[in-house]
Predict the structure.
Amino acid sequence: MSSQFRILISSCAAAGVLFCAIHGGRAAEHTKDSLETVKSRLKDKSAVLVDVREQKEWDEGHLQDASLIPLSKLKVEKEAEKVTKDLSKKKIVYCHCGAGVRALTAADILKKQGYDVRPLKAGYKDLLDAGFPKAGK
């Protein structure tokens, strides 16, 4: 094997390790569904909205009709079973967080459980700005 070929192979392997390190090995990508499509599917009840932020963030404000399933609980198998028991596998699950990163991690976990999950890139404040209603107190 030539030294140039070895360098090329080593570079590709290093790039793969770096990619996994940056992306946490996750496979999920943000949904391509527009926010208008998300709103429409929520309205016609073909989808549900899941907030994967933590309880304290939820308590500071959350979206109307969203359900709280904190990422920290999804990461613990026994907790995940409890917090997802009422989540329908017959509906699209749109998940959101504060800025879109935790939604990807949550999507990976939920996909492994058999959900049609579509993580939103838009975070909580972006969704409010896009016209998603804030829950009343």
